[in-house]
Design goal:
Elements: E1 2-7, H1 12-24, E2 28-31, H2 43-55, E3 61-66, H3 70-76, E4 84-87, H4 93-100, E5 106-110, H5 116-128, H6 135-146
Parallel strand pairs: 1-2, 1-3, 3-5, 4-5
Helix pairs in contact: 1-5, 2-3, 4-5
Length: 147
């Protein structure tokens, strides 16, 4: 599976760690930026690139990082066909439900709230969780993607 990564300065350390982690797991990882730690960067530049890449590469997923993960998901969800879920700690059921019910193709991580070790666990869970493919969830996703 191909995985696109993106971060701003607040998520840069997480992105770099998860990139190595995923490559070690055998995933094809494509880094959409930031290429270096720059406290003055703007997250929309990188998030939009990752979101567009997922839409244009069926079967791929993206993991994006920022301080809270909220703004990053807002940018990604502006792109038709992206279904970005936010995780900034707490119950891991959020991760599984995002995949089982929403077929989330982007995971937005709030790096200021989740340490790297926990992020690795949640990314592993998210990538391993399949979409349920239940009719009601397919119907709802169709409404999201096509309305």
């Amino acid at each position: 599976m191909k995985i696109y990564l993106a971060s701003d300065h607040a998520g840069f350390e997480h992105k770099e760690a998860i990139k190595k982690f995923l490559e070690g797991q055998g995933y094809t990882v494509i880094d959409k930026g930031a290429a270096s730690l720059d406290p003055k960067d703007d997250y929309p530049d990188f998030m939009k690139s990752a979101a567009l890449a997922v839409v244009n590469d069926p079967g791929a997923r993206a993991i994006i990082f920022g301080g809270s993960g909220q703004g990053e998901a807002l940018v990604a969800n502006r792109i038709r066909g992206v279904r970005a879920a936010v995780y900034y700690g707490g119950d891991e059921k959020i991760i599984t439900l995002s995949r089982e019910h929403g077929d989330a193709n982007v995971l937005s991580i709030g790096a200021r709230f989740v340490d790297i070790e926990h992020t690795e666990k949640m990314v592993t869970l998210w990538l391993a969780t399949p979409f349920s493919n239940e009719e009601r969830h397919r119907r709802r996703i169709n409404k999201i993607d096509n309305d």
